[in-house]
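Regression check, zinc ion case 400:
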Amino acid sequence: MTLTAGGDIERLVRLLSRLPGMGPRSARRAALALLTQPQARLVPLAHAMEAAARNVRTCSVCGTLDSHDPCAICADPQRDHGLVCVVETVGDLWALERAVIHRGVYQVLGGTLSALSGRGPDDLNTRSLFERVRSGEVREVILALGATVEGATTAHWLHERLAPTGVAVTRVGHGVPIGGSLDVLDDGTLAAALSARRPA
Amino acid sequence: MTLTAGGDIERLVRLLSRLPGMGPRSARRAALALLTQPQARLVPLAHAMEAAARNVRTCSVCGTLDSHDPCAICADPQRDHGLVCVVETVGDLWALERAVIHRGVYQVLGGTLSALSGRGPDDLNTRSLFERVRSGEVREVILALGATVEGATTAHWLHERLAPTGVAVTRVGHGVPIGGSLDVLDDGTLAAALSARRPA
Ligand SMILES: [Zn+2]
Ligand SMILES: [Zn+2]
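Current build output:
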């Protein structure tokens, strides 16, 4: 697009193309889709994006994303802070919150152990989980990880680490399809998986 | 996401979900992908989006998108203003510009005639094309429309409208695959199609 080098469109396409999963072609398509929006829709979106970029941070307790640290869940005295649900991603936490089936708190690992991808224990956000367990405030840890090889490996590793502390460790059970991720499940399946949890 | 109602994340997801082709799920995924970007990448993107929203407009001559009206192409005295290439979309214009094979100017129709979709002549951006042809400044009109039923119908209709004016009307020829759109073609195919143009 030599014609607009340095122009607004070229800059938008260039910045979009730096997002993960975007190539030059998908960035051009996204830019066109955005530019054909009315200004009254695009300007608020730009403002929301800037506000999110400036305000949203990782909760130092559980690892989710929120405008406050600790996050709204960790700061909520109505939630059961003795019941910690361990999930892989923020998207998984959002799925459980939408289903309104977990009244405890969370730990977001930020991924799974993976020999193939070279992700080891140090790459997981677990420090604050172990701290909370050691402090004695945690009664039960629910492992709500995906039913994948990596999820099972991670659950097994966490169970081994947590067992000596004496905390109850359970896993979500029936319902999570093999190879599936929690994020795409309907609320009913999520509820079934959570209520059918068993000792890990 | 009851937890963040009214929060930065909820607002971003809500505004993203209003974009065409976005549902609640894809908006959540897009928001998460954006929020895991460093602030140093997301803030400039938000600024670029706002600048584009405020500055980019439709060129009153050719119908493309640019920060200026007339656009950089229409305002360029180096381009051949007697040679007008008619394309369906801004994306098609960008594809031809990237290939650097057309030194004339453009007319962006903004779509095609389509009986099925109920798009008639009034839905196409043709007024400024006919004005330019009537003014006598145009020597040749190249119809660079997709090789689809709608593209062929539109080319035929334009040819019938333009023939009485005496302007030369040509079509891009070999190279545009049947059912294909110009936007996805490589530069060589685009160059072949353009140089193999023939009277319509
Ligand atoms: Zn938290
Ligand atoms: Zn123009």
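Comparison notes: Strands of chain A lie at 57-58, 65-66, 80-87, 104-108, 140-143, 168-171, 198-199. Residues 39-55 of chain A form the longest helix (17 residues). No diff flagged against the previous build.
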